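Quick log. Single chain, no ligands specified.
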Amino acid sequence: MLGQLFSLFFPRLCTVCGKSLIPAEKVLCMGCISDLPRSGYWLRDQNVITDLFKAQIAVEHASSYLCYTKESPYHQLLHRLKYKGETNIGHELGRWFGAELLSSPFYQKVEMIVPVPLHPKKERQRGYNQSMVFAAGIAEVTGWRLTPQILTRIRHTATQTMLNREERQKNMAGAFLLSAPKQAEGKHILLVDDVLTTGATLQACATALRMAPGCTLYMATIVHIE
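-> predicted structure:
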């Protein structure tokens, strides 16, 4: 009875279209799940994201779950995850993407997941790391070990919203430290972030991780914003 009353006054709504969710639905209604702008990059040997990083640093494969423009109604997913505290969105997207990665021939050797860390000051302000939430969802489905302690953010960087690619790369240079190189040595590592625009943050993280001898890198993000 209390649950019914709570649902009456505080209905669960689809993050994208605002439609009331039925008990079996989480985050999105079935219609919006069906229309999710999935990139399908994890099934392609060559794609724009893998090509972007291979030109800069050695990676086995890279992909984003979703691909859309800032005008897309699905932009609400990332906005509400990052700025509204709706961590359930990131976790559920991670679960969905984890299932897709398990079906990909390019991610079969992954052993561990490293989320892009926030600076401690930023994480205290937000209360959580959205990339960690997404990574936890992937780990839950895949069984790959979640190892956030391997990478540390040692420099607080300015917001990158108004910076171009070259400026972002300079802004992120030296921002991350491989804090547990022995744990990363010789491992197949999936580096996970929330959003990909120019790739400067992931490139800086990958540069730090490559300090571990013999490690192999893969990359995955929630969304690639065109």
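Residues 8-36 form one domain.
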